[in-house]
Amino acid sequence: MPEPVGIRLSPFAGALRRAIRERGATLERLAEHLRDQGTPVSAATLSYWQSGRSRPERALSLAALRHVERFLGLRGGELAGLLDAPRPRGRPAHRPPSPAPMSRVWPDARSRRRALHGLRPRDEARLTRLSIVSRLEIGPDRTERRQWNRNILRAEQDGVTSMVLLFWPDAHQPPPTLVPTRNCTIAASNRDEDSGLTAAELRFPRPLARHETIIVEYEIEQGGAVPATNHEQRGRMPTRELLIEVRFDPAALPRRCEQFSDIGGRPLVRPLTWDDSYTVHALGLDVRPGAFGIRWSW
C-alpha cells in the first residue's frame, strides 16, 4: 500500500494506515463492519482518513472510530488520541474553550474553596479531554466494590504537569481513598470536613509537550456499608467521549436504572437496561460542562 504522493501523513492517518495493513483488512470489509455496528462510514471516507485527506470530527465519526480500533485489534483510544483538535467551523476561534464557571458544576462555593485551598488547577484549561471512562462495580450487599477511571488527555501547550480531581462520598459514608495506578502521583490533596468534598492534584511523570497525549488511570475506594445509588462525572471542560459504566452483582439488581445529565441547565433522563454481564452504560460524545451519569433505585 504505497504512501499517497504529495501528502504528508498525520500521526492519525499513518497509524490507521499501518493498522489496516498489518491486520490485512480491506476498506470494504471495515466499512461493512461499521454498518453492522450502527456507525456507518463509507469505504471512500475511510480511504480519506488513512490518506490524510480528511479525519473523523463529528460525533458519529468519533463513535465509529471506537469500532475501528476494536476491529483492528488496537487499544481503546489509541487512534482517537492521535487526532488533532477539531477544525473550527463558522467564525474562527483563536482560544481554547474556557472552563465553565465552577458554580455551575459545584454549587457549594464554600466547600469548593476549602477543598481547593493550596491546590492550583492551572493546567485544567490547557488539557483536552479526549476520552474519560469511569467504571463502578456494585457488590451483592449493594455497596461500591471498586471504581476504576481512565482519562486520555492531550496537552494544548508545552509544560502541562498535572490535573485536578474533585470527588465526594455518598451520604453517611467515610471519606473515599484515591489510588493512582498509571502515569500519575498525588502531588497534594485537601478535604472539606463539613461536606466531604475532596480535591487532589495528580502530577504526571514529566511535563507534557504541546499535542502530546497521556493515559492517566486511578481508582477511588469507598468504604462503608451504605447502598450506592448513583455514579456520575462532573466536569468544567468539554469531553470528546465520556463513558460511564455500572456493573451490578446478579444477586442484587436494582428495580430501576436511568442515565441522566444536567448540562447548561437542561436536565435529561433516559431509562437503561443491563446487558448479559449485568452492566449498564451511558455514553456521551462531545459532552459539555456539567453533570453526566447513571442513577438507580433498589
TrEMBL record:
UniProt-annotated stretches for the region Disordered: 83-105
Matching CDD domains: HTH_XRE (cd00093)
Stated name of the protein: Helix-turn-helix protein
Organism: Saccharothrix australiensis
